[in-house]
Each structure stands twice: as structure tokens, then as C-alpha cells.
Amino acid sequence: MKIQKSEMPEISLKYSTNGTVKTKIKNAMEAHSLFLSLFDPDTLEYKEMAIVLFLNRANHVLGWMKLSEGGTSSTVIDSKIIFATALKCNASAIILSHNHPSGTIEPSNQDIVVTESITKFGNLIDIKLLDHVIITKTSFYSFADNGRI
To answer: What's the CA angle centered on 130, arms 42 and 83, to 5 degrees?
Structure first.
């Protein structure tokens, strides 16, 4: 049985910055500020959302992606989607963020488990999780600043 090229799905990888200026992230405060501009301010206190920044080796932002949007108390953080995207744009690092509509910045047990899982997987493929930032309208929690990454 001979398979024709036209009978198989083609997989292609394409990424272009289109010459845009890249923002450099130096610390959690800068990441928090950038994330606040990406989250919808009208739903920040209403439903959880997760956003990922993809960075190069110099910590310049290659791009961002809205990973998920959930309900009032949770959202899905899918490692496969994060790392498939990171590989596609040739990212060397990522910064993950999600909001807590409740206004509390303390990470939940699930937040801790997800952060550890993403860190471990990223280490296997040389894509470092630089931080996981939990944001509220008035404050933020940085896993990196608190020694949890």
C-alpha cells in the first residue's frame, strides 16, 4: 500500500515576531504589571483566567497566550498546551499567571502542585518556569519571590 502525500495531514511550524519590540522582564513586579494589562479588568474579580508569557534566553517576551478561562474558583492549566506553544515559538522560559477572583493572593494547594509539575516538566526539556504570578486587582503573589521556584 502506497500512501500519497496528499492523504496525510501536514504539520507545520511557523513563528514570526514581525519585527516588534520585545519587552524585557527583570522581576516579578514587571511581570505583574504586564499581566495586569493582559487580563480583562472587567472579569478579574469575577472568574479565573490563566495567561502565559513566553520568553527568550535574555528574558525578552516573545509573546503571550490566554491559556484558559474558568469559573469563579478555578481554571484549567494544561501543561501540554503550555509546552507545545513554548516549543513552537522556541521559548527558553515561561512565566505563568492566573488570577484569584476572591482577592486572596495566597496560593492554593492545587496552585502549588501545578507549579511544581510545570517546573519539573520544563526542566526536562530545558524550558524554565521563571515564575508563577497570582494576581488580584490590588496585589500579587510571586512563587519566585517567595522561594517556591
So the answer is: 80
